[in-house]
Design a protein that fits this description.
Length: 444
Amino acid sequence: VDPALQSDVDKILMKLYEELKAEEDERLAKEAAEQAALGGDGATPVKEEDASVSGKKGGKSSAKKGKSVAVVVVPDEPKEKLLPGAESICVASRAACTAASAVREEPLYQHIATLRFGEIPKDMRVPIPMVTIIQSGRSAPGKLNCVKEFMVVPKPGMPIADSLKYCQKIYSYVAKTLVTKSGMAAQYGNDIGALCPSYDKPEQGLDILQDAITSLELTPGEDFFIALNLAGKEIFDYEKGKYEVMGGQQKVPEDLVEFWVELLGRYPSVIAIIDPMRKQKEHWMRLCDRVSDKCYVMGNHTYPRPGLLLEEELTEEFKTSGTVLKLDQINTITDILESAKKMEDAENQIVLTTCYGETTDTFLADMAVGMNARFLKIGAPVRGERIALFNRLIQIENQLKLEGRLAFHGENVFPHIVPPPLPEPEEGEEAQEEEKKEEKGKKK
């Protein structure tokens, strides 16, 4: 197959995967039938009502007499089971795309732009980097669970070279501040290079980032902004139906909405939040109604992977102002590009994000430019895996500038996701509407 026919390549890959999956399902069904024929493994089946009780001896409820047991919340969607080696689908799709670029003797970002738009656009844009400085959440020390990543975002139109310089200085400022308070160990980074201090409340991370931006004689909310990855799905307790925002402090969805509204009201420099809660349509839209005119409300794990997102119908009951796409596992180039088009048509900003275990390969930088993503979520501005992406973005930006085709993303605009309610009809208007309907009925 011609590697330039990316859609055909990806269809072959997915067909192969479906065949392997069918074989695996058949094997598992055969093993289950053989096990049943032998009388099973002797394990006593657990009743559904017993399974909802957590870890008490004898299966007894932990609730005291006279008190009702909390209703267990069922997850929205079961986690997709992937075959071992499913990541090879993504790798093969990327390899074909890179090969097509080499065969056609054109830059990779131009080839991807052709796949996305059918032709090379007259003007092309470099994505705005979304750079992680601090990582918190359940996996980090401290009581703070409700913020997984504290990120900084330069203003639209700032050259990538300047963005990198400022991001590194912000990172250095935060690291030095943490070392002064907690010792040398505080400057150690995790697998994405982010700093992992022991925080107990979100204000600590927000304040130190604003101080770092101010120390560079920049204005938070004008020259540099803050984005938060909240990973709401990870802090939700399905047994209690509450979010554990901080150690020992849980909130029901209604209270979580008020918590975020109040916090964002005090920090106008925050322009994006990712996954503020799980996909609870009523409460999600209530939060959007309160904050979407001040910042982007983005979905990551609230949407299925790109391949399945293409099959999902978008409704007015659940909306976002941005979506995060990741090229990993069995997601192909075609899945990402078509999902981006679908979400852009639904007025979503596109964020392309890196994956865990990244190398110094710069494919994602070219892809973000080619597909016209507004943001590229990179990680911390340290180590070769991420600096390589920055350097590649600088190269592309300089090349587009020489060709006279460099454009910039527009200013941050936050459309109100929830439309305002329709005005109530004045007295007499309802009667007139009824008369019009009756007249139309008579004519028919």
